[in-house]
UniProtKB/TrEMBL annotation:
GO BP of this protein: L-leucine biosynthetic process
Cofactor requirement: [4Fe-4S] cluster
InterPro entries reported in the protein's UniProt record: 3-IsopropMal_deHydase_lsu (IPR004430), Acnase/IPM_dHydase_lsu_aba_1/3 (IPR015931), Acoase/IPM_deHydtase_lsu_aba (IPR001030), Aconitase_4Fe-4S_BS (IPR018136), Aconitase_4Fe-4S_dom (IPR036008), IPM_dehydratase_rel_enz (IPR050067), IPMI_cat (IPR033941)
Annotated protein name in UniProt: 3-isopropylmalate dehydratase large subunit
UniProt keyword 4Fe-4S, yes or no: yes
Catalyzed reaction equations: (2R,3S)-3-isopropylmalate = (2S)-2-isopropylmalate; citrate = D-threo-isocitrate
Top EC class for this record: lyase
Pathway the protein contributes to: Amino-acid biosynthesis; L-leucine biosynthesis; L-leucine from 3-methyl-2-oxobutanoate: step 2/4
Length: 472
């Protein structure tokens, strides 16, 4: 019988198979950041162990750093301590760190692909759930806990049970102005936010093949919000073109060799998945979440649902969600006004995301009183955007233009949403308090977030007037 893409990568990386015990899996690339690494390094110190393969380990700082001024000391002493600790650990253990002085710094899941470190067929881990992002390249990439971070630092291996597999065949193409963010949100909306628990997803079909790498990363990123362990997309010419000539990608003969290996990375026709589902891309509308999990989502042309219309298991949670969100059933999505707009995070802060948002914003002004932030995913993205003049479009409209970091995606740094405020956010999580205490998060695509910043409320980007001149 044939193998799935997941099984092919798994089999190539198993160092040791133990009956009834987790297998030992070799890890090709270990990414680390300031939040989940300190205890892991302390463990190594106590046991007097070195990092086994420092050259396969890469660190960046992203979660707790400020994105406005980067000068030390930070206002938040805990953030300052985390960053100093990472600096020391990387120095002591010989690990490459992209710190705030480096123009390679950025959100961990944005920098590895842009540097050409994320490669098809690899195993990758990070003490961070959204490591699934890298699955867009056909890499088996998933988040691990801090004790596992220590294990990988010490051995370059990880104990793992194999996961079940879930194939999502996405037929047809996405309509004009509808993005891959809308696609993944509507899939989660249809099946529920824990449907994929325990599974590694493979996204396939015409809609996926038509997506750019940036768009594919958005989908794999949110596999976690669907409950999955990881998400995968088989590499193809789009992938190879993206990787080629990236700084750390294989070059010359090594490239040719890698390419011929990568071309075997797909699920065989007769491979068996534990679950297979199909999804129609042609009917997807721009999405807005209205609740406190990503599955509580609907089209911009819909209204906030009545919890009574939902399944029994969702009813209570939806009722609570509407109280927290300050929303009434029946309110049209387009009537929901926002206070804050955040364009950023490892879901949607890459150059294409910023281009999409800038297209909407061009020639307009941010609606009065709205606080709107654009936070590029990396300093490289920032530089590229500035070369293209996107920063000017945002700044002239009244957006803040920041340095890279996780920023308002999570309430762990200076960029937080105020209590009771409503935020249109391009990030991936909307649970209670995610962006700050009592903050209300609505997950949307970059163009939808940009449109909300201009209009002051959610607005259907399919009807956007791109030509209109500046609104006073
Ligand atoms: C801080 C980190 C452990 C966390 C994660 O693993 O996802 C963060 O990145 C998040 O998005 O909530
Ligand atoms: S941007 Fe958000 S989701 Fe991504 S790693 Fe940072 S905190 Fe986690």
């Amino acid at each position: 019988m044939g193998k799935t893409l997941y099984e092919k990568i798994w089999d190539k990386h198993v160092v040791h198979n133990n009956d009834d015990q987790p297998a030992l899996l070799y890890i090709d690339l270990h990414l680390i950041h300031e939040v989940t690494s300190p205890q892991a390094f302390s463990g190594l110190r106590e046991a007097n162990r070195p990092v086994r393969r420092p050259e396969l380990t890469l660190a960046t700082m992203d979660h707790s750093i400020p994105t406005a001024s980067r000068s030390y000391p930070f206002r938040d002493p805990t953030a300052q301590l985390q960053v100093e600790t990472l600096e020391k650990n990387c120095r002591d253990f010989g690990v490459q760190l992209y710190n705030l002085e480096s123009d390679m710094q950025g959100i961990v899941h944005v920098i590895a692909p842009e540097l050409g470190l994320t490669l098809p067929g690899q195993t990758m881990v990070c003490g961070d759930s959204h490591t699934s992002t890298h699955g867009a390249f056909g890499a088996l990439a998933f988040g691990i806990g801090t004790s596992e971070v220590e294990h990988v630092l010490a051995t370059q291996c990880l104990k793992q049970y194999p996961s079940k597999t879930l194939s999502i065949m996405i037929n047809g193409r996405l309509p004009e102005a509808v993005t891959s963010k809308d696609l993944i949100l509507s899939i989660i909306g249809k099946y529920g936010n824990d449907f994929a628990a325990g599974h590694v997803i493979e996204y396939r079909g015409e809609a996926i093949e038509a997506l750019s790498m940036e768009e594919r990363m958005t989908i794999c990123n949110m596999s976690i919000e669907f409950g999955a362990r990881a998400g995968l997309i088989a590499p193809d010419d789009v992938t190879f073109d993206y990787v080629k000539n990236k700084p750390f990608a294989p070059k010359g003969e090594k490239w040719d060799q890698a390419l011929s290996e990568w071309k075997s990375l797909y699920s065989d026709e007769d491979a068996n998945f534990n679950i297979s589902i199909e999804f129609d891309a042609t009917k997807v509308a721009p999405q807005v979440t209205w609740g406190t999990n990503p599955g509580f989502v609907g089209g911009i042309d819909e209204s906030v649902p009545n919890p009574d219309s939902l399944s029994k298991e969702n009813k209570k949670e939806a009722e609570d969600a509407l109280v927290y969100m300050g929303l009434e059933p029946g309110t049209k999505m387009e009537e929901i006004a926002v206070d804050t707009v955040f364009i950023g995070s490892c879901t949607n802060s890459r150059i294409e995301d910023l281009r999409e948002a800038a297209k909407i914003v061009k020639g307009y002004k941010v609606f009065p009183e709205i606080r709107a932030l654009v936070v590029p995913g990396s300093q490289q993205v920032k530089k590229q955007a500035e070369q293209e003049g996107l920063d000017k479009i945002f700044l002239e409209a009244g957006f803040e233009w920041r340095n890279s970091g996780c920023s308002m995606c999570l309430g762990m740094n200076e960029d937080i949403v105020m209590p009771g405020e409503r935020c249109a956010s391009t990030s991936n999580r909307n649970f209670e308090g995610r962006q700050g205490r009592n903050a209300r998060t609505h997950l949307v695509s970059p163009s939808m977030a940009a449109a909300a910043a201009i209009k002051g409320h959610f607005y259907d980007v399919r009807n956007w007037d791109f030509k209109k001149e500046v609104i006073q």
